[in-house]
Inverse folding.
């Protein structure tokens, strides 16, 4: 695997095998896919000690690389998180199979009956960093939607991902589905990523799941279409009429519950009117919780605030750090979000319904929230089960990408000897 000359050969072999598997998987029954996912869930739980042992090796590797505490949190697996993985696999298994769903149907005066029907995309390449549970999420969603997948996890999660992948294969074997339906790149070498991005003969779409560096690389180099998943530069705007207790609880949860996920808040926008009436209590609560608050102007006078630089706005910290700024009304908040946001998830906290409507109408982030933590930006919390990522682009899939979003459609046209005049 260390010989770079072999990587194109390895990747082409994976592509050819995935394409062949996808052709069979496209018409696999819902019952067999369900059985494969249940089998995978059982294998993950039965092999949890093995997964945790492999994860310990990954944690050692992460410490040697100097990963931040937030990134180490992303990497870590314990029994509770493995239980969450198992629950996610079972939840996807129980979802309605999207393949073959009739999206629309109509009859034409010519006598033709036309149906628009969901169909798999084909082969999906998933490139992700750190979080080994993505192996299970991505494998499950691609299988459910009838797609073969080539998984390329981060070097940090190499051992954990390997065992989780083996569990997915256990499920495929138990359901008598092709093992090549879920393939994993067997090397840490980054040259494999470059190859995957060019495999237009085998791969139908690339889904990157990671930080700005990874997504930027994919968007620059990919010849295969990409479901963009940019940074989660999530904003919370506390409007003039916000309930101060609610606002504090929301921002604390949005920032501190898990700092390393893409739905974590990275910028707090405080309305001047709110700040004039209620003062710096929210900032003080963040500081007391151990958050480094970076602010400018009037807010920089608050004890414990760290002076902000221009680079702090528009930064995905993924850590116990947040940028903060005073804004004069909802228009200024919207302008700031348009300038520095990533079209991922943005929230308004207010009791003013007109302001909510205004905020929702004028911003075009993939997810907009009112009086709720941005940490809810997750397919499971939307009732969609596990998701392969939050798409921030505007083509095809947007927001949480679940099984249904991993399908396209085809037209099925029926006639009765119908001829065009």
């Amino acid at each position: 695997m260390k010989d770079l000359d072999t990587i194109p050969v390895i990747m082409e072999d994976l592509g050819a095998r995935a394409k062949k598997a996808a052709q069979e998987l496209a018409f696999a029954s819902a019952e067999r896919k369900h059985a494969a996912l249940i089998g995978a869930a059982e294998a993950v739980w039965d092999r949890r000690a093995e997964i945790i042992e492999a994860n310990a090796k990954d944690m050692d590797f992460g410490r040697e690389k100097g990963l931040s505490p937030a990134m180490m949190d992303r990497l870590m697996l314990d029994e509770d998180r493995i239980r969450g993985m198992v629950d996610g696999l079972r939840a996807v298994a129980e979802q309605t199979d999207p393949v073959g769903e009739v999206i629309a149907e109509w009859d034409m005066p010519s006598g033709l009956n036309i149906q628009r029907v969901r169909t798999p995309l084909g082969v999906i390449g998933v490139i992700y960093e750190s979080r080994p549970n993505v192996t299970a999420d991505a494998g499950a969603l691609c299988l459910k939607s009838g797609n073969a997948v080539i998984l390329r996890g981060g070097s940090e999660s190499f051992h954990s991902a390997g065992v989780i992948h083996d569990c997915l294969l256990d499920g495929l074997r138990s359901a008598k589905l092709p093992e090549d339906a879920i393939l994993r790149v067997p090397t840490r070498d980054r040259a494999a990523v470059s190859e995957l991005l060019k495999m237009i003969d085998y791969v139908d779409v690339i889904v990157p799941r990671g930080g700005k560096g990874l997504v930027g690389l994919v968007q620059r180099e990919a010849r295969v279409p990409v479901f963009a998943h940019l940074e989660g530069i999530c904003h919370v705007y506390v409007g003039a009429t916000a309930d101060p207790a609610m606002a504090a609880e929301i921002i604390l949860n949005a920032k501190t519950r898990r700092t390393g996920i893409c739905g974590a808040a990275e910028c707090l926008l405080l309305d001047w009117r709110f700040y004039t009436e209620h003062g710096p209590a929210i900032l003080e609560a963040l500081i007391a919780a151990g958050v480094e608050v970076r602010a400018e102007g009037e807010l920089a006078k608050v004890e414990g605030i760290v002076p902000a630089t221009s680079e702090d706005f528009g930064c995905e910290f993924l850590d116990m750090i947040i940028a903060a700024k005073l804004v004069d009304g909802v228009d200024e908040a919207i302008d700031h979000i348009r300038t520095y946001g990533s079209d991922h998830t943005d929230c308004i906290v207010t009791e003013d319904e007109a302001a909510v409507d205004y905020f929702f109408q004028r911003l075009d982030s993939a997810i907009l929230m009112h009086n709720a933590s941005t940490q809810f930006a997750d397919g499971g919390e939307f009732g969609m089960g596990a998701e392969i990522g939050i798409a921030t682009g505007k083509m095809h899939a947007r927001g949480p990408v679940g099984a249904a979003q991993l399908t396209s459609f085809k037209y099925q046209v029926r006639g009765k000897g119908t001829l065009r005049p």
Summary: The chain is about 40% helix and 20% strand. The longest strand covers residues 113-120.
